[in-house]
Structure prediction request, 288 residues.
Amino acid sequence: MSILYIVPTPIGNLKDMTERAVETLNECHMILAEDTRHTQKLLNHFDIRTKLVSYHKFNEKTRSEEIINEILNEEKNVALVTDAGTPCISDPGYELVKRAREEGIEVIALAGASAVTIALSAAGISTYEFIFYGFLPRKKSELEDALRKIKKNPVRTFVIYESPKRIINLMENINEVMPNSTICVMKELTKLHENSFYGSAPKVLEKLKNHEDVERGEYVLVGLNNDWVEEPSAGPVVSLQAILFDKLIQKDYSLKEAVNEAVEEGIASKNDAYKASLEVKKFIENYI
Prediction:
């Protein structure tokens, strides 16, 4: 039976490549890679000769169908890798895995490097529950909206990916929207020049602005939203049918009078009030 393997690759340090990953890539019929040039260097390092096929966000849907057909018709074992880390985590792969599941193809994911879990484990920020946002929008208005949604989310620990050219801009916006947040920005995880910046949002922003190589490398940001405030409860929700019943009983109204008053009070539109009255009428006829 054919298998689709999800194979993590190192995010920086080649020693993080597992023996099982090397063995799987060697034994598969085909390796799907986000950037074949990048992955070829990895394969050369581990002397892996398996056929390499391009699979990225621009051809993901069409290529997925082609690969699924090959797996089904030619009984091939296929491995999916990304440039670095675990496939499908803010990287291509979802379409292929979804189609494989739909066709009953076995999907096996290997353990390995992931910037999300590495950053969370070393951030010094609560990880009992967290939410991963990947890359946030570039446009200022959309970025601000995204950060406001993060601020309102009761899951207070969040993880964001960011490019070196935009990390300062991201931190400036976080400092505006969530100035009391605790932040740990991690740069070049597992690599030779790995670095991290921890503290309040203003302090981390200052550290980044003073970092001479701030526009080099890749960044993962882990934050704890200390600006979150629980929104007051809107109170119990009363159905329109219950409101009409109350008017019938408390004011001795006819159903028509109850509907008219509900509309006049702005509680419901005429159409919604009429529909609710039909349900009330049906209930009265059946049970009263």
Summary: The chain is about 45% helix and 15% strand.
